[in-house]
Amino acid sequence: MTKDLVVTRTYNAPVEAVWAAWTDPKAVMQWWGPTCFTCPSAVMDVRVGGLSIVCMRAPQSMGGRDMYNSWAYTRIVPKESIEFIQNLATKDGVSLDPLTVGMPPDFPKDQRCLVTCKAVSPTQTELTVTQFEWTVGHMFPLAEQGLNQCLDKMAAVWPVTVP
Hints:
Elements: E1 2-11, H1 15-23, H2 25-31, E2 42-43, E3 51-57, E4 66-77, E5 81-89, E6 111-121, E7 124-135, H3 139-155, E8 160-161
Antiparallel strand pairs: 1-7, 1-8, 2-3, 3-4, 4-5, 5-6, 6-7
Helix pairs in contact: 1-2
């Protein structure tokens, strides 16, 4: 059984700013990773066929380990939507099988993701992030919590209204 993970937020920021949060490496580094994690690097190649490599660093209390995600872009409509395949990866962007790095069997490989931005007004943007076809199991609620924490960090850049 699978389930899509969908999170929607409304940010008090124009579409251009919310779009940049997903496409500008300096912006991504401000919010990627759950609470207490940092993002020391984001190498962004945001174009169809491009690959971004985003690092998430655990706090020292959790070992301080660097973990990388790759985002392989499949469709982009500027300032409207970004579709990509997300994977655990090496620092060079080579996809890893989650099982080989100790993740549980319900951790996805080749996770299809969709990010959409919709202007609510000139100064407000609705952002929806969808991660498709999660196997319902141990990882789904952790992924939901982590995504919400990332978007909470993004909200720290601008005031946010959660529906």
